[in-house]
């Protein structure tokens, strides 16, 4: 019973008491078929101001405890093969993050963002989705693309803005996107992807039980934007098969959750939207896998959105432009790293089940490191995209006159001052 | 003192001299991602310098409401590229509150600060110059400083101006631009351009970080061609100082206007139209606009994209050779 510990958010028994002008609202139809057709409520003579302290906190679903031991008597349903593939991808993600982060430190790329601490969220959720499911991500979800087969070379090419970057070098590092992998190109403005994802999901309403769903990822900070409300409410009212996958890593750059919201995290909002929801321990990769699998099945079967709040902690700095020791104690970071990091936790579980050992670990890390370094060297050696060809293209499908003229002006300028505009400058 | 310190100093001055002033925005409490609010929370307390939830429409709306009580709101939007969720609040609300209420209500105590402009590695969303979207909105003042001394004086003017102001800070200059910023309380008048370098042959107009590019182009024109440029910093983009530019162009007969933002519908178009109207018979050459191209801001092509000193030098030369 996956949802055994969670309280139902769509509890039909909850009826708000509204005074005064309530009469005409009593039987207002909402137009939604299913769980709640009508906005119905009862009257009471009890004047009851409900205080926030009385709201219960939602429990987070967990399969493996921080000690790496199973919390349930029942073994999880994942095959040994799947577990191994998930673990390997988590390690690969961690190693890639480490190498590219260092590359930024050495000035070889201009920017980087790590998933450190959120490898379980990345890989656990990715493994629960199907390849056809369309992903609208925020930026700390490189593992989802990795799971789908975006290669180390693909990642490196984007970060080095070379001619093989499908984004043609136009965006900052880590703004990946791949139509082949059903992964929309990352856009830095936060939360814009959330209502877009609802729109894409609307297109899949009639896709049948084997059809795709949409999955959108966002941070707990991004959930404060107006676009979050728009996306959630549209998906609920328009009955879209979509997963809202919130990575609650407790910080939005320097801003801690207590400055971000005062409710019970993000999951509590689902009730307000009439939406199904799960809270899960995001550092427990198997729990994430099970929660997102369950959510996906529900969304597809019912044409309904699900909000999944994945509880975690951002162990790394926000990005290479950030020094997080300016706003949080090192002990806090260390304690999460030591006791809750998803990789050692998953490894303990794997070892206890004889699926993994020290030799495999060493071999994997050595191989992956070599592969990342190699991809990086290749990426660095490749030429940059040509400016004249790529600067003016794709603004529109066809170049309007103003751009044709500007392209010609640039061409003349490049001829006049070739040394100044040489690439690698 | 560099620019982020000058801005910090201006806000300290404002918070000190006005008990109603508050400073807020994303990550402001720990000092802000560009360090502009460093130390201010410790100095003025968490009720006056605080983090907001991550929501620009909230930041703008909250600032408007606070200012509508007659108090002073200094709101930070983390990057100008992220001001668009606040667009409705700024364009439809802040700009029109006074007018629509027949001057009963206003939010003149609101100043919205946002870092803008090219930085060398910002790509689409950490590089934009969105001033023209706001200059198209009567009721807002739009101000952009070129160095730390200007930044402090102009920001204090914005904070104290009885109209809502948008103050774009050239982020490329936060650390790079250094000056002897007066320690005391001073303001620089809004709506007044400044002739940074007098000259006789070509009027060159810009603002913000572009002033440094233009100074280089003017030097080049002088040393390589003996062309004397009159370089003007517009400083307040709206309401703009038409008279200063008109007087200069009547003298030189030539005008080059330059900004990082895309050319089409950029503020240079407004200046060109007004000057061709007011100085038609004085003009010796077509007015030149040297701007960003009409494309999104591209990471790897930034060097080609920006209106650099060489493109401006060519434009200056062109007006003289015409
Ligand atoms: C609209 C918008 N406002 C501000 C920013 C600047 N910014 C980038 S990431 C970030 C914090 C996001 O925090 P969260 O959503 O919790 O994601 P996390 O970084 O923790 O994964 C901010 C404020 C932005 N990119 N877009
Ligand atoms: Mg976060």
From TrEMBL, chain A:
Stated name of the protein: 2-oxoisovalerate dehydrogenase subunit alpha
UniProt-recorded Gene Ontology molecular function terms: branched-chain 2-oxo acid dehydrogenase activity; metal ion binding
Compartments, as annotated in UniProt: Mitochondrion matrix
Function summary: The branched-chain alpha-keto dehydrogenase complex catalyzes the overall conversion of alpha-keto acids to acyl-CoA and CO(2). It contains multiple copies of three enzymatic components: branched-chain alpha-keto acid decarboxylase (E1), lipoamide acyltransferase (E2) and lipoamide dehydrogenase (E3).
Catalyzed reactions: N(6)-[(R)-lipoyl]-L-lysyl-[protein] + 3-methyl-2-oxobutanoate + H(+) = N(6)-[(R)-S(8)-2-methylpropanoyldihydrolipoyl]-L-lysyl-[protein] + CO2
Stretches assigned to the Dehydrogenase E1 component domain: 89-386
Keywords attached to this entry: Metal-binding, Mitochondrion, Oxidoreductase, Potassium, Pyruvate, Thiamine pyrophosphate, Transit peptide
EC code(s) of this entry: 1.2.4.4
Record-linked Pfam families: E1_dh
Organism of origin: Hondaea fermentalgiana
Record's GO cellular component terms: mitochondrial matrix
Required cofactor(s): thiamine diphosphate
GO BP field: branched-chain amino acid catabolic process
Family: Belongs to the BCKDHA family.
SUPFAM superfamilies on file: Thiamin diphosphate-binding fold (THDP-binding)
InterPro entries per record: Alpha-ketoacid_DH_E1_comp, DH_E1, THDP-binding
TrEMBL record, chain B:
Family matches, as InterPro entries: THDP-binding, Transketo_C/PFOR_II, Transketolase-like_Pyr-bd, Transketolase_C
Coiled coil location: none
UniProt subcellular location: Mitochondrion matrix
GO terms of biological process kind: branched-chain amino acid catabolic process; response to nutrient
Gene Ontology molecular function terms on file: branched-chain 2-oxo acid dehydrogenase activity
Any Gene Ontology CC annotation: mitochondrial matrix
EC number(s) given by UniProt: 1.2.4.4
Swiss-Prot/TrEMBL cofactor(s): thiamine diphosphate
Occurrences of domain Transketolase-like pyrimidine-binding (ranges): 1-176
Entry protein name: 3-methyl-2-oxobutanoate dehydrogenase (2-methylpropanoyl-transferring)
Species name: Hondaea fermentalgiana
Biological classification of the source: Eukaryota, Sar, Stramenopiles, Bigyra, Labyrinthulomycetes
């Amino acid at each position: 019973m996956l949802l055994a510990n969670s309280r139902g958010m769509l509890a039909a028994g909850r009826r708000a008491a509204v005074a005064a002008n309530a009469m005409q609202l009593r039987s207002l139809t909402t137009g939604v078929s299913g769980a709640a057709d009508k906005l119905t409520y009862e009257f009471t003579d009890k004047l009851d101001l409900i205080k926030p302290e009385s709201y219960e906190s939602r429990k987070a679903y967990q399969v493996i405890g921080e000690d790496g031991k199973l919390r349930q008597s029942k073994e999880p349903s994942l095959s040994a093969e799947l577990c191994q593939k998930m673990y390997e991808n988590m390690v690969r993600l961690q190693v890639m993050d480490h190498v590219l982060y260092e590359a930024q430190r050495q000035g070889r790329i201009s920017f980087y963002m790590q998933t450190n601490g959120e490898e379980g969220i990345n890989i656990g959720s990715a493994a629960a989705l199907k390849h056809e499911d369309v992903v609208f991500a925020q930026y700390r979800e490189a593992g989802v693309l990795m799971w789908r087969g975006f290669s180390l070379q693909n990642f490196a090419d984007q970060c080095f803005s070379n001619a093989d970057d499908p984004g043609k070098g136009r965006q900052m590092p880590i703004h990946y996107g791949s139509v082949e992998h059903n992964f929309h190109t990352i856009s830095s403005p936060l939360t814009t992807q959330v209502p877009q994802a609802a729109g894409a999901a609307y297109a899949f309403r009639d896709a049948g039980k084997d059809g795709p769903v949409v999955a959108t990822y966002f941070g707990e900070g991004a959930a404060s934007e107006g676009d979050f409300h728009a996306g959630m409410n549209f998906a609920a009212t328009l009955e879209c098969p979509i997963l809202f996958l919130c990575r609650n890593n407790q910080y939005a750059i320097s801003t801690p959750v207590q400055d971000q919201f005062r409710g019970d995290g993000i999951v509590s909002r689902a009730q307000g939207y009439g939406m199904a929801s799960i809270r899960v321990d995001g550092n427990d990769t198997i729990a994430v896998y099970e929660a997102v699998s369950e959510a996906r099945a529900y969304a597809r079967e019912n044409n309904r959105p699900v909000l999944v709040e994945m509880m975690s902690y951002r162990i790394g700095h926000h990005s290479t432009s950030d020094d997080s020791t300016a706003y949080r104690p090192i002990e806090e970071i260390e304690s999460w790293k030591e006791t809750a990091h998803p990789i050692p936790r998953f490894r303990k579980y794997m070892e206890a089940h004889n699926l993994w050992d020290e030799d495999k670990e060493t071999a994997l890390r050595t191989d992956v490191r070599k592969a990342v370094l190699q991809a990086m060297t290749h990426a660095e050696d490749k030429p940059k995209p040509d400016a004249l060809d790529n600067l003016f293209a794709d603004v529109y499908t066809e170049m309007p006159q103003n751009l044709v003229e500007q392209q010609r002006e640039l061409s003349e300028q490049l001829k006049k001052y070739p040394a100044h505009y040489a690439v690698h400058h | 003192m560099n620019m982020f310190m000058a801005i910090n100093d201006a806000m300290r001055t404002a918070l000190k001299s006005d008990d109603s002033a508050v400073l807020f925005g994303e990550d402001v409490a720990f000092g802000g991602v560009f360090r502009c609010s460093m130390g201010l929370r410790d100095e003025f307390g968490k009720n006056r310098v605080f983090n907001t939830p991550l929501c620009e429409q909230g930041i703008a709306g909250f600032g408007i409401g606070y200012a509508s009580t007659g108090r002073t709101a200094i709101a930070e939007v983390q990057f100008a590229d992220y001001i668009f969720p606040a667009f409705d609040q700024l364009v439809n609300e802040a700009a029109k509150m006074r007018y629509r209420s027949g001057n009963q209500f206003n939010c003149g105590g609101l100043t919205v600060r946002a870092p803008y402009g090219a930085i060398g590695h910002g790509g689409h969303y950490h590089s934009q110059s969105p001033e023209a979207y706001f200059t198209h909105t009567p009721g807002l003042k739009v101000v952009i400083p070129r160095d730390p001394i200007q930044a402090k004086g102009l920001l204090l003017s914005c904070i104290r101006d009885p109209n809502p102001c948008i103050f774009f800070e050239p982020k490329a200059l936060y650390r790079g631009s250094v000056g002897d910023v007066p320690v005391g309380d001073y303001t620089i008048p809004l709506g007044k351009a400044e002739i940074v370098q007098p000259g006789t042959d070509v009027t060159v107009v810009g603002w913000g970080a572009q002033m440094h590019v233009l100074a280089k182009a003017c030097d080049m024109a002088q040393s390589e061609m003996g062309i004397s440029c009159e370089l003007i910093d517009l400083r307040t983009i709206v309401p703009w100082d038409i008279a200063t530019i008109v007087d200069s162009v009547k003298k030189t007969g030539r005008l080059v206007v330059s900004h990082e933002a895309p050319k089409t519908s950029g503020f240079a178009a407004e200046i060109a139209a007004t000057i061709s109207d007011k100085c038609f018979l004085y003009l010796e050459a077509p007015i030149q606009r040297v701007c960003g191209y009409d494309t999104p801001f591209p990471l790897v092509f930034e060097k080609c994209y920006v209106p650099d000193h060489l493109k401006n030098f060519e434009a200056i030369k062109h007006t003289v050779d015409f």
